[in-house]
Amino acid sequence: MKSLFAVKGNIIFTKELGKFEVCEKGYIVVEDDEIVGVFSELDEKYKDIEVIDYGDNLLIPGFVDLHVHAPQYPNIGLGLDKELMPWLETYTFPEEAKYKDLCYAEKVYSRFVHDLWKNGTTRAVVFGTIHKEATKRLMDLFAEAGLGAYVGKVNMDRNSPEFLCEETEQSINDTLEIVKEYGNKYELVKPIITPRFVPSCTPELMEALGKIAKEYQVPVQSHLSENFGEICFVKELHPDAPFYGSIYDKYGLFGDTPTIMAHCVLCSEDEVNLLVEKGVFIAHNPNSNCNLASGIAPIRRLLSRGIPIGLGSDVSSGHTLSMANACVIASQVSKIK
Ligand SMILES: [Zn+2]
């Protein structure tokens, strides 16, 4: 039997950049789990359907968290006394190593998915760890919760501590296994190719990941030009590359399939031009950029170039899963800039 009902309240949504649609005391009509439309009055044909009345409350769409690290959830609010590279080594890598243990992963990931939902986030783009089984379990937990997500098994085969460094071949094979097994397993939960960032991936690994993304038409996520120390390290590793983003591009990881790059605090003009040319999305993480002293991303300048930008909580260098909080801090830092 078909289900048909309406919810009533003060509806606010943003169909396009810079424009709020407001429908006071309006109706959202839902048929078989899909929204038919938003109406200020109910049409004659809907006059007998059930109406759930939320009175004077606001009705808004679920939040999308465009950049979040699920395994870092136990570290939330901790260890924010360092910049990116020492922060990773001191706090993040030791925590991420724990996900070799599937019981630990189950415990944390269950709580993580639940708390995303509790914060009103219904879609997320998520980093897991290098561990294949824990990443698969995270995808299953999202599906069981009815939430939508792109979930990435992280790839790291250089400049990483021994306890969190993969063999190149293993990293490629594990990624391929997840892409094949989970590509069509769920409607709302999908794999995403996730090289952690250039410093922790060999050219050989990046090349293989680019090929997998292209062959299986899988999107890509990573980090770009977040912090001075990181950018200097990338220059040392790739002295011939004109700029950071060109390295991802060389290996097919920069917009050849839909791509999200997190941060982009310190992009050069050439790098911004390539972001525009390749249609790369940016995940803006203002909490994290403050907490790790990375700086203020020039979002107005990037928006004016037509780059699509969304917000990320970036837990745990971001200290809260709340996307409402991310909206507030994004506004605040843009005023300081
Ligand atoms: Zn991140």
Concise account of the structure shown:
With 337 residues, the chain is of the alpha/beta class. The protein contains 11 helices and 14 strands.
Please characterize this protein's 3D structure:
The chain has two domains: 4-59, Urease, subunit C, domain 1 (Roll), CATH 2.30.40; 63-336, Metal-dependent hydrolases (TIM Barrel, Alpha-Beta Barrel). Helix content is 37%, strand content 25%. The chain has helices spanning 84-96, 102-118, 132-145, 168-182, 203-216, 228-237, 244-250, 269-278, 286-291, 299-304, 323-336, and strands at 4-16, 19-31, 34-39, 50-59, 63-69, 121-127, 148-152, 154-155, 189-191, 194-195, 220-224, 259-263, 281-284, 309-311. The strands form four sheets. Strands 3-2-1-4 form a four-stranded mixed beta sheet, with no helix packed on it. It has a four-stranded parallel beta sheet with strand order 5-6-7-9. A hairpin with a 2-residue loop joins β2 and β3. The N and C termini lie far apart (54 Å). Bound molecules: zinc ion. Zinc ion binds at residues 67, 69, 223, 262, 314.
Order of helices and strands: EEEEEHHEHEEHEEHEHHEHEHHEH
**Second CATH tier, the architecture of the largest domain:** Alpha-Beta Barrel
CATH topology of the largest domain: TIM Barrel
Give the full name of the CATH homologous superfamily of the largest domain: Metal-dependent hydrolases
Span from first to last CA? 54 Å
Low-pLDDT runs of 5+ residues are none
Bin the helical content.
25-40%
SS class: alpha/beta
Ligands bound here? Answer: zinc ion
Radius of gyration: 21 Å
**Mean pLDDT across every amino acid position:** 96
Query: What's the overall geometry?
Result: globular
